Amino acid sequence: MDNISIFLCFVIGLISLILISFKKRYAYWRDRGIANLEATIPFGNLPMGKVHIKDITDPIYKQKKPGAPFMGAYFFRTPVVVATDLDFIQNVLVKDFSNFHERGMYVNEEDDPLSGHMFSLDGEKWKSLRAKLSPTFTSGKMKFMFPTVVDVADTLNSTLAEVLKTESELEVRDLLSRFTTDVIGTCAFGIECNSLKTTDSEFRNFGSKIFDKPLHGPLMELFRTQYPNLARRLHVRVVSKEIEDFFMGLVRETISYREKNNVRRNDFMDLLIRLKNGEALDERSQKLGRVTFEEIAAQAFVFFVAGFETSSTNMLFTLYELALNPDIQEKARREIEIILSKYEGKLTYEAVQDMVYVDQIISGK
């Protein structure tokens, strides 16, 4: 047998083993008598191409079995549960949450410290970090940050007024992204990003790079998701070194300046610094120990990443729907005017809490 024949036999054998492996894996739910969708090699139940999460879950919900609390599906080779019953969802998220806290996200804290944030961590690390950070997200702490948000909103109003003097049309998506960048940059990092005043701010540019220029393509994402231990041994990162250097440097400079000059602000960074220095935000946090610099940087990073794009998109869709429904827009305007009159025309935390109809619009209720 010549070398080419040997090579072809090897390739055919390897492909056969891979197919058999997938077939066996895709029998996971069937062997356990669980209703499931037929999976396609190699993506499982994930459609090819970039799609919305709704396009992934819709076929599963449509084929759910009566009385079954969940459906079985496959994320590439990994069997996953898709909850389809409200009571079951409540059990997972509330009653039995201690058994369902893992997220299955790739984390590499050693080579990529910004990946070690609360959204991705699992197990005891996640429990410990969540317990330490929970006091930073109380309504009281959010209330302290509210004046900072109002200041940025005033800048948004003035920027919008300036733009409309010279232009009849504007890109609302970009304007709102710059607004949320400034809000989170101020609250999470305690810096003036000035994204509203200049479209080329460094903070805004790095925020765009996170989403517009991902470090890896789909194949590498598949590899690190399916084989996380091997990916860590190979030092695979989630965040690019350029972005890491920027955010780590920013947090380091912010902490150094505040501690050196004894600066205190009502923002997220101030709370994180207090945790780093062993200060208690409440009775429970005093017993949990300090957070490290890397943990501070990672939480500030995810606070920014999870906030600026999602918030601006929600605002964009809200404005679009209000434009299509002038009657709803007018009703919201009347509520705002009535409530602001109670608070002497000032947009306070309590005033926003009283705007029930506006909250329903934003929340899509």
From TrEMBL:
Membrane-spanning ranges: 6-22
SUPFAM superfamilies the record matches: Cytochrome P450 (SSF48264)
GO CC term, one of those recorded: endoplasmic reticulum membrane
Keyword entries, A-Z: Endoplasmic reticulum, Heme, Iron, Membrane, Metal-binding, Microsome, Monooxygenase, Oxidoreductase, Transmembrane, Transmembrane helix
Necessary cofactors: heme
MF GO annotations: heme binding; iron ion binding; monooxygenase activity; oxidoreductase activity, acting on paired donors, with incorporation or reduction of molecular oxygen
Tagged with keyword Metal-binding: yes
Subcellular compartments: Endoplasmic reticulum membrane; Microsome membrane
InterPro entries: Cyt_P450, Cyt_P450_E_grp-II, Cyt_P450_sf, Insect_CytP450_Detox
Topology in membrane: Peripheral membrane protein
Matches recorded under Pfam families: p450
PANTHER family assigned: CYTOCHROME P450 (PTHR24292), CYTOCHROME P450 6BS1 (PTHR24292:SF103)
Family: Belongs to the cytochrome P450 family.
Full protein name: Cytochrome P450
Organism name: Hermetia illucens (Black soldier fly)
